[in-house]
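Technical note accompanying the year-one report. For the benefit of new consortium partners, we illustrate the data format agreed upon in the data management plan: each record pairs a sequence with a structure-token string. No post-processing was applied to the example shown here.
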Amino acid sequence: METYLFDFDNTLANSGEASVESVQKVFTDASKPVPTREMIFSEMGLPIETSFPMWANLDANDVQLQKMYAEFRDYYSSIEAQNTHLFPGIKEALQDLKDAGHQLYVVSSKSSAPLARNLDKLGIGQYFTDLIGSDLVENYKPAPEGILKLVDKYRLNKQQAVMIGDAIFDLQMGKRAGVKTAAAGWGAYDLHAIKAERPNYLLEQPAQLLDI
């Protein structure tokens, strides 16, 4: 592979607890049925603009959702530092990939500003040529738009590109974009589900990124 496209949450960094706590607080404050931990993890990888209307049973244009989005992002930013940590071996793998001349990108369901902030705080922002957050696409994962934007902008060879993610939505996005897919088994909540997507590569440790 020449190009490595990474999801962020639970692929590069273990951030699940921050998401669970933030979602549950927002739904409690909004007097809505609070999503369970299992529900939140099963939909992790989708942007809140997709999951919140479904969980809250609200129309996507409902003004209450806009308040919930804002509260989520504010609260998440206040707790992310103590609840977001790189998986063991990630930084070393990224350094080795860059040293080998590969191009690295991030395609995430986070908005681009907090995504960039997280990458920098974790000390890995310098490894990535560019990033695509949910605010930079019209069609969210598993639509392929995020990957295709990078392909067009940097003239990437899709045959030599791989999407790495912990969730089925990441793998579905990669397939629809026409790139290879690799399941990040170290961060996956439902290993059976990602195996069922038949990724090109099923990785157990970040060091295996160097072998594809």
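Partners are asked to follow this layout when depositing records. The radius of gyration is 16 Å.
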